[in-house]
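Course exercise 7: structure representation. Students receive a sequence record and must write out the corresponding structure in C-alpha cell form. The form below is the worked example handed out in class, using NADP-dependent oxidoreductase (343 residues). Read each field label carefully; the graders check that inputs and outputs are placed in the correct fields and that the protein name is recorded exactly as given.

STUDENT ID: A-19
EXERCISE PROTEIN: NADP-dependent oxidoreductase
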Amino acid sequence: MTQSPKTNKAWLLASRPKGEPVNENFRLVEQPIPEVKDGEMLLRTVYLSLDPYMRGRMDDSKSYAAPAELDKPMVGGTVCQVEASKHPDFKTGDWVLSASGWQSYALSDGKEVSKLGSLAHPSWALGILGMPGFTAYMGLMDIGQPKEGETLVVAAATGPVGATVGQLGKLHGCRVVGVAGGEEKCRYAIEKLGFSACLDHHREDFAEQLAAACPDGIDIYYENVGGKVFDAVFPLLNTAARVPICGLVSSYNSDDSLPEGPDRTPWLLGGLLKRRIRMQGFIIFQDYGDRYPEFLKAMTPLVEQEKIHYREHMIEGLENAPQAFFDMLKGKNFGKTVVKVSD
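STUDENT ANSWER:
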C-alpha cells in the first residue's frame, strides 16, 4: 500500500455493530500527521494484530476494558518503528510494541510502549511471543496444570492460542486432541503440530467423533470457542477436569439476551459439582500481567529451538483490515491474523 509521507490513513469505528460486524461499522479516513512535540514520538505502524477480543470492544456494554470510542481509530496491538522522536527514551528507528490501533501513524508519549529486542520476525511479538502466546501459556500452565498421560482437548487448534496450547501440552506429556474447521487445518494440526488427533467441527457426527477420539475422557479442555464444541466436550470431562476459558468466539456476534431453548443451568452446574470440574475464566493481562517475563523466559527458547511451531495469516495493506477481521471471526484465517501496514 502506498502511503503519503504527510498523511495518516486510519480506520475509525463509525458505529457499533448489531450482531455480526459489517463494512458500515468502519470508516477509512486520511488525516494530517500531527507534529511531534517534546516528550513525544511518531510511530509508523508496520504490523497490526487482529484478534477476536476486538469484537467485544466494539460494543459499549460493561466489560473488563473500556469500549472502543466512536469516530476514533479502532483499537489494536501493533508493532511499529519510531519515525521521529523527541522522547528521551526512544530514538528514530527503534522497533516497539504498542497499541496504536488501526492506523498507519500514531503519536505517543511513551506510555504502554515497550522496545523490542533483536527479533528475526518482529510481527511475532503480536503472536507467539505476545498476547496470544502469553494467553496460551498461562491458561494451560496455571489453570490447566497438564500432567503426563492426560488427555487435552483444544478448540481453534490451528489458531495462535490453540496451536500453542496443544504443543505445550504435548511437551508436558499430554495426549492432545484438536478441534478445527476443515480438513486442511486438521491435517496441519496432526502432521505439523504433532497432535494425536484433530476433528473437523463442521462434521455432522462431530460429537460422536470426539467421544471416539477420547476413550478415556477429557482431563483438560482449553476453551476459546464455546457453542457446539463445548456441548460435545462437557459430557466427556473427567472427574477433576480443568477448563481454562479465554474466549467464546462462537457467541461474539450475538446480543446480550439469553439464547432460546431449555434452561441447561442445572445440567451444567450438576456436572461441575458431581465431577468436581474446575472451570475458570481469565483475562490475560489483568490476571497475569506481572508474569509476562516468566512467559518470555519459558517460551522464547522453545520457539528459537523450533520445539513450538507458529503460523501467521499475513494480510497486505491497511485497507484490507476490516475484511480480514470479518474472516477471522468466521474462522477463515489459518494462523495468527496480522496486517502488514508498511514495509
